[in-house]
Sequence to fold (236 residues):
Amino acid sequence: MTATADPVKLMKQEVGKAAANLVKSGSIVGLGTGSTTAFTIQFLGDRIKSGELKDIVGIPTSFQSEVLAKQYGVPLTTLDAIDHIDIAIDGADEVDPSKNLIKGGGAAHTREKVVDYLANQFIVVVDSGKLVSRLGETFAVPVEIIPMAITPAMQAITKLGGKPEIRMGVKKAGPVITDQGNMVVDVRFDNISDPDNLEKTLNNIPGVLENGIFVNCVDKVLIGEVKDNKPLVREM
Ligand SMILES: O=C(CO)[C@H](O)[C@H](O)COP(=O)(O)O
Fold:
């Protein structure tokens, strides 16, 4: 793979590669979604092709990661065929100092939460622009809702103090539809002081399938940075 001049892409590439290097032969690997984990999947494929990495199987968290795994030669399985996941590698939209996350920028947070929470080790890969002092600082909370419940669920979210907006498609008329056939509402909150409680409260609204707040589940965050035009990876 050739290095790129775009600093954010360079950070994503370095951190994606660093995470792929943590995977050991014989592992069952959760494959995250997004532009950062796309590099991880690509580097896993490179390690398999070179013979350095043997007997791994991936569990995709989205149609996107499934397609990439097939493209780069990473064998896949399903949750029905395995009894554990050794390591999951996934991106995030925000990371707070306690390693809590907002995810779902790619509308894949429901499957991501299933896979990432099952893993014995959950590694998050981000560029340094994703670090925040408090969740909700820059990113809205994605909430996946079944279509017939969209109106009452949005009303309930508004009563909680959130400002919900249906996520609209790009190069597609109408709303984004998830891999499960649902809609996503992006919810702005003025202040998320208790992410643990907000995660549970949102999921208690009838019709809500899952939201993008991930609390107390991350083992390690790999952060990509660029210093003096050189990419670096540090750990949190
Ligand atoms: O949660 C996600 C998808 O639902 C992604 O992991 C998150 O949006 C980060 O994406 P990227 O690596 O492209 O910045």
Q: What stands out?
A: The chain has two domains: 7-132+216-235, 141-212.
